[in-house]
Amino acid sequence: MTTGNSEGTKVSVRQERRGYLLHGLDPVEAEEAEQAGPAGRTDGGAGDSDRRLLDPDGESGWTERDAWQVARIQAEFGEGFRALSGLPHAVSVFGSARTSPDSAEYAAGVRLGRGLAEAGWAVITGGGPGAMEAANKGAQEAGGVSVGLGIELPFESGLNPYCDIGLNFRYFFVRKTCFVKYSRGFVVLPGGLGTLDELFEALTLVQTGKVTRFPIVLFGTEHWGGLVDWIKSTLVASGKCSEHDLDLFHLTDDVDEAVALLSRETER
């Protein structure tokens, strides 16, 4: 994982790591280094840590590798918590990495990031391109704190250039924890499967009381309207969820309304 300071400088945490993960003592990292190609990437590409951890064909018993995986996970949680502990009140913004910079959705993301920053919120995104970049760009241009929580994936090119604080995680679940722990609410721009994953995890956490006073705004009625209709006509109608669960989120196309909803809900 890499971290950055408030000036946007990226720092390798391997240069800082202490305790369990002293340089040269981690057999998991050593194995990955042995498999690294000329460009420093493993044969499986970026994101191998999650794959190795979850591989059902690996050894089923407790092994030395498992112990080191646990140590790496613990270290990644600690590094993330340390890097983000000084943030002002923040909102996480999710959305598609495939959103084109010349699209109306990208422009809306920039306006949203700017509006949140002007209202005093730090803006946290997944640090990638598309909608995430748009929100980071708007926040940075407005003088706010712009944060990117990236993930090692074979098809991602690293953090976008508008992140004042940047972290790059090995493990999805560590990254997700940081999104929730350091946010007071979520805004969900149009997106695909990854965005849906983040949305429904947040809804479940609020529904089950794992987090409280956590507003969730779906931004883009044309994109999200069909999903909301399906929740009403199928999930609620069949008793799979309560009608009260519809109050867990808000649907809007207006930046000012989204910012006002977040501020109002978190002050209750």
TrEMBL record:
Q: EC number(s) of the enzyme?
A: 3.2.2.n1
Question: Known catalysed reaction(s)?
Answer: 9-ribosyl-trans-zeatin 5'-phosphate + H2O = trans-zeatin + D-ribose 5-phosphate; N(6)-(dimethylallyl)adenosine 5'-phosphate + H2O = N(6)-dimethylallyladenine + D-ribose 5-phosphate
EC class of this enzyme?
hydrolase
Q: Which key words tag this protein in UniProt?
A: Cytokinin biosynthesis, Hydrolase
Pfam families per UniProt: Lysine_decarbox
Give yes or no: UniProt keyword Acetylation. Answer: no
InterPro entries attached to this UniProt entry:
LOG (IPR005269), LOG_fam (IPR031100), LOG_family_nucleotidases (IPR052341)
**Where does the record place the region Disordered?**
1-63
Q: Which family does it belong to?
A: Belongs to the LOG family.
PANTHER family for this protein = CYTOKININ RIBOSIDE 5'-MONOPHOSPHATE PHOSPHORIBOHYDROLASE
What this protein is called in its record is Cytokinin riboside 5'-monophosphate phosphoribohydrolase
Give the organism the record lists. Answer: Streptomyces fragilis
